[in-house]
């Protein structure tokens, strides 16, 4: 994937907090022990495949502006690697970050494109529909 100008991780390491990483026995919502928070991954060269395979939609999609950088809105946007679902992953400490108007508008547009859109925060999840409605998922 080609780098998009202005789309580097920079000070953002939000993925290192909100994602669960079984290889490190790291739970969602807890900072990874290898993350320096200001300089990113401390084991970048030897990071596990799950980290190597992760793709941040904000970095890869030109239409997602600077104001939607994950650490700024508290929501990580990503394609689920195991399904066709589109996920908005939030910090469990701020479970409704996905309801930020900018984020929510984007999620509804993904739902209108016939995607299954799910917002997640820890063990909680919500399905977002094309009409702008949403419901908690069990």
UniProtKB/TrEMBL annotation:
InterPro entries named among the record's database cross-references: UPF0153_domain
Protein name, per record: Zinc/iron-chelating domain-containing protein
Organism: Methylosinus sporium
